Amino acid sequence: MSDASETFDIEFRHVVKRYGTVAAVNGLDFKVRRGSFHSFLGSSGCGKTTTLRMIAGFEQPSAGEVLLAGRPVAGIPAHQRAVNMVFQSYALFPHLSVLDNIAYGLRYRQPRPDKAGQRRLAEEALEMVRLSGFGQRKPHELSGGQQQRVALARALVNKPTVLLLDEPLAALDRKLRKEMQSELLRLQREVGITFVLVTHDQEEALSMSDSISVMQDGRILQNASPEQLYETPASRYVADFIGESNLFDGTVRRIEDGRVLLETAQGLQLASPQTPSGPALRAAEAGCIAVRPELITIGAGSETLAREVSLPGEVVDRIYLGNLTEYRVRTESFGIVCVRVPRHGLAERSAFEHGAPVRIGWDQASGLAMTL
């Protein structure tokens, strides 16, 4: 679908945010489609939280333009924007009941509902997050997951155009985090408004988002769907940050028949297709070939693998992960190579223990060539 036929709730046009001489955000151009779930993903200091704060109105850009629902919002303060934010700390008022916490923002709504209307809207929001009956409790009487739901209800009660989520699940344990991911997805589908999440957790972003912006040093390296990011990363950084990849660096020798011939520092050659998402590679440039661990086959050292690349090696680590087993294999040619085997993949053979001689292999088409 083209931009002309889509509606966007958020748009950044050449946005820069400087703090002194430091550019926290440097030339951002992106759009977030109305009614979608978008994530900003990156390590600490990449600019994702600064980007969120400019959407919210807590920060103003040093240059460029921010648009919400198609309208420029330069100079419009946070409380006048149709945007609400859920913080990592939840920021609930400890002296107020759950219901009063949720209704608090309704006092500033125009036109402001009367007290009965505020209570009704707060109770509807509480029901939306499946906490009916908890309205008279204080925040300290709730679990972490329940407090998170109250924070969500408070943010949603004013029916914002965009809901901003600043690492809202970071303080929760793994099991509760998974439950809240499902809850966030359910809520987003039910209310139909645009959700924007900031996170450093790639699994969280992949599992919930319609689109993801991967950021580094104040720039967006790739803006794409979770499937595109995982299957066709634009660069070495994205391939390494999204999931796990075996990364073989080298120099591009030539490009022919749609394949990039890369020579490693050890003089070994690999030929794989170039990623369609990144800049074009050229001969004599530095490049990288990335191969996902699940695309590599492993067998006993005496086996012959019908793969274009076939290497002997030794298991230096075996990690059991329940649904799969991960092997770290030391090879003479490529150093340590990671291999992941689903549980059913070893059903008819013994698992390879530490120190076992093995053979690993993959087809050249399983890799992707990309820039560093």
Automatic annotation (TrEMBL):
<dbReference type="InterPro" id="IPR003593">
    <property type="entry name" value="AAA+_ATPase"/>
</dbReference>
<dbReference type="GO" id="GO:0043190">
    <property type="term" value="C:ATP-binding cassette (ABC) transporter complex"/>
</dbReference>
<dbReference type="InterPro" id="IPR005893">
    <property type="entry name" value="PotA-like"/>
</dbReference>
<dbReference type="InterPro" id="IPR003439">
    <property type="entry name" value="ABC_transporter-like_ATP-bd"/>
</dbReference>
<dbReference type="InterPro" id="IPR050093">
    <property type="entry name" value="ABC_SmlMolc_Importer"/>
</dbReference>
<keyword id="KW-0472">Membrane</keyword>
<protein>
    <recommendedName>
        <fullName>Spermidine/putrescine import ATP-binding protein PotA</fullName>
        <ecNumber>7.6.2.11</ecNumber>
    </recommendedName>
</protein>
<dbReference type="InterPro" id="IPR027417">
    <property type="entry name" value="P-loop_NTPase"/>
</dbReference>
<dbReference type="Pfam" id="PF08402">
    <property type="entry name" value="TOBE_2"/>
</dbReference>
<dbReference type="GO" id="GO:0016887">
    <property type="term" value="F:ATP hydrolysis activity"/>
</dbReference>
<keyword id="KW-0813">Transport</keyword>
<comment type="function">
    <text>Part of the ABC transporter complex PotABCD involved in spermidine/putrescine import. Responsible for energy coupling to the transport system.</text>
</comment>
<dbReference type="Pfam" id="PF00005">
    <property type="entry name" value="ABC_tran"/>
</dbReference>
<dbReference type="GO" id="GO:0015847">
    <property type="term" value="P:putrescine transport"/>
</dbReference>
<keyword id="KW-0067">ATP-binding</keyword>
<dbReference type="InterPro" id="IPR013611">
    <property type="entry name" value="Transp-assoc_OB_typ2"/>
</dbReference>
<dbReference type="GO" id="GO:0005524">
    <property type="term" value="F:ATP binding"/>
</dbReference>
<keyword id="KW-1278">Translocase</keyword>
<feature type="domain" description="ABC transporter">
    <location>
        <begin position="10"/>
        <end position="242"/>
    </location>
</feature>
<comment type="similarity">
    <text>Belongs to the ABC transporter superfamily. Spermidine/putrescine importer (TC 3.A.1.11.1) family.</text>
</comment>
<comment type="subunit">
    <text>The complex is composed of two ATP-binding proteins (PotA), two transmembrane proteins (PotB and PotC) and a solute-binding protein (PotD).</text>
</comment>
<dbReference type="InterPro" id="IPR017871">
    <property type="entry name" value="ABC_transporter-like_CS"/>
</dbReference>
<keyword id="KW-0547">Nucleotide-binding</keyword>
<dbReference type="GO" id="GO:0015417">
    <property type="term" value="F:ABC-type polyamine transporter activity"/>
</dbReference>
<dbReference type="InterPro" id="IPR008995">
    <property type="entry name" value="Mo/tungstate-bd_C_term_dom"/>
</dbReference>
<keyword id="KW-1003">Cell membrane</keyword>
